[in-house]
Amino acid sequence: MIVEATGLKKSYGATEVLTGVDLSVAEGSVLALLGPNGAGKTTTVRILTTLTRPDSGTATIAGYDVLREPARVRGVISLTGQFAAVDENQTGRENLVMVGRLMHLGRRTARRRTTELLEQFGLTDAMDRRVKTYSGGMRRKLDLAMSLIAHPQVIFLDEPTNGLDPASRSAMWDAIVELVRDGTTILLTTQYLEEADRLADRIVLLDQGRIVASGTADALKTQIGGERIELRFTDEVQLLKAAGVLSGVVDQLVLNVPSDGTAAHLHQVLDVLRDNGLTPERVSSHRPTLDDVFLALTA
Amino acid sequence: MSHQGVVAACSDAVTMIDRSVRLARRNVDTLFVSLLLPLLMMALFVYVFGGAINTGTEYVNYVVPGILLLTTGYGASSTAMVVADDMNSGMIDRLRSLPIHSFAVLTGHVVASVARNATSTAIVILASLAMGFRPEGGVVDWLAAIGLLLLYVVALSWLAAGLGVIAKSVESASTLSFFMLFLPYLSSAFVQPESMPSWLRPISEHQPITPVIETVRSLLIGTPMENNGRIALAWCCGLLLFSVVLATSLYRRRTNR
């Protein structure tokens, strides 16, 4: 495990922000920390990136202890925070070269990587403009590019698309997917279920400083169960008749039949309907969304 | 620290100095204010108040050393604001998550501050010559005066950096550094302490700015030096030591939460 954390606790005054968080991320995988505002996502990231000391608990990144070897940890990670960490009064190029130099790349390597990343993120045209003239999406891209300059082993993305318009968000997702393809390990935080569902191999659901669930998106959806077959009828007579022969919950003209999601069960349901001369207008299979999971587990 | 560590730390410091100087050059407002205000104050004192103040010498000669210290005060307080701005931006988290020595960030700001202050001080000196300032000091006196002012500016810049580190916002940095702007008025900068009420005189005579001003005065316009040179040096070195320790430990504390 390239990221390992055990029993992380952190309080600010009387407010417990983290109440014992365990995490592990496999090399080359993407973990999403999903949770509402104030769940402790940013605090977790700050601890793992050596910016905040936990009150108790331990964490290692690529084998380095975040408390005892912070400098080594900083050498293998990069952090892209919630607010674009860029110098407004430097140009995009100057920002990139500066971070490259601070990551102790040679002057020439820093310049070469800068050119590559400007190209990769479509910022070449804007590279000699001061960042204060950039749009929000461009800043985030520059921010991410700055994170990548020294090929970090683990990338931390704290709400990478927070506050972006849909087009910029989609561009950001593409950039992240690209990184994943290159085999970079990513730990990202998000409030958007769609984002976690789309980008992450594993999701950890955080609420009020503790982990309430974790697993793949599919596993989480299965965990709260509730897969069902929706049968929509055109009239109430048919609906009530169907409700008489199949156990389910009626919701307006829809009969929701609990299901295990197998084809055999769907067959069985359709057979029962046919044997009773019933023809629903529509049949659909419904799996819970991450929204359902989220609400069920954090409510 | 290993040899490689030292090289890396120096390289970090150079990169950060490069950054801070570039940002300072582009921050036209700050540059303008830290230059314009002292010039206006000098004009005000020389042409408006000066005629009514008796210092036993040509007033412009009396007041210029004080104006120079006032200039550094303005420069330093803008440094506190620049540092506070940095500390409260997302940038500081990025800088901290990089494998660099914490000293490098503040060093960058302090060097930029000294460079900005040196520029504005030089311009104020040129302007004062145009307003009739007629120093008598020779080359050695000038070098000594410039050296002392530089030492004072470095010390004050570190102090300002420390204030910037603890300030929660740019506004509070400006408030915290108010005393830097105010202290020169309670010194021998504009009037002789002898003319102050008896309760204020000791404050005026024993605060750090008065001996620095008196030393510069003595070097440039030939007033008696007495013990001022030594006292000024002691104040500057003490302030420098105190400020460096203060600023770096505050920085560590602020960035280790």
Automatic annotation (TrEMBL), chain A:
Protein name: ATP-binding cassette domain-containing protein
Localization annotation: Cell membrane
Record GO cellular component, one term: plasma membrane
Pfam families in the cross-refs: ABC_tran, DrrA1-3_C
Native organism: Kribbella soli
Classification via Gene3D superfamilies: P-loop containing nucleotide triphosphate hydrolases
Membrane topology classification: Peripheral membrane protein
GO molecular function: ATP binding; ATP hydrolysis activity
TrEMBL record, chain B:
Keywords for the protein's UniProt record, in alphabetical order: Antibiotic resistance, Cell membrane, Membrane, Transmembrane, Transmembrane helix, Transport
Compartment(s) where it occurs, according to its Swiss-Prot or TrEMBL record: Cell membrane; Membrane
One Pfam family per UniProt: ABC2_membrane
Molecular functions (GO terms): ABC-type transporter activity
Gene Ontology annotations of biological process type: response to antibiotic
Matching InterPro entries: ABC2_TM, ABC2_TM_bact-type, ABC_2_transport, Nod_factor_ABC_transporter
Domain ABC transmembrane type-2 residue range list: 29-254
GO annotation, cellular component aspect: ATP-binding cassette (ABC) transporter complex
Membrane-topology annotation of the record: Multi-pass membrane protein
Bilayer-spanning residue ranges: 31-53, 59-83, 103-130, 142-166, 173-191, 232-251
Domain of life: Bacteria
Keyword Transmembrane helix: yes
Family indicated by similarity: Belongs to the ABC-2 integral membrane protein family.
The protein's name: Transport permease protein
Species in which this protein is naturally found: Kribbella soli
